[in-house]
Specification:
Layout (H helix, E strand, L loop, with lengths): L6 H11 L1 H16 L3 H14 L3 H8 L3 H7 L8 H15 L12
Length: about 110
Amino acid sequence: MALTRDFRQTLVERVRRDPEFARALLDEGATPFLNGETDAARIVLRDLVNATVGFEALAAETSKPAKSLHRMLSKNGNPTMDNLAAILGVVRRKLGVEIRAHAVEAA
């Protein structure tokens, strides 16, 4: 059975209408970075940027070229901590949330 709707379009629409889902997606992007799972984190964060601020607005707010931001959040991207903090800061402000890290016992 063929997909009837593009995944990214569905994600964008859900993020825009469901603030709780958007916050959960931000958590899903930030937590893997803290746990060293950078590949997955970049992909989730890229999707979240697309669904919230967009790369052009992100570029304006971070003073970084949109193309560089796309590259940073690509599969092989390697954003610096400063750039990652700037990206997360813009998305966090757009969603109106704080990011707090807390330790959890490993299972």
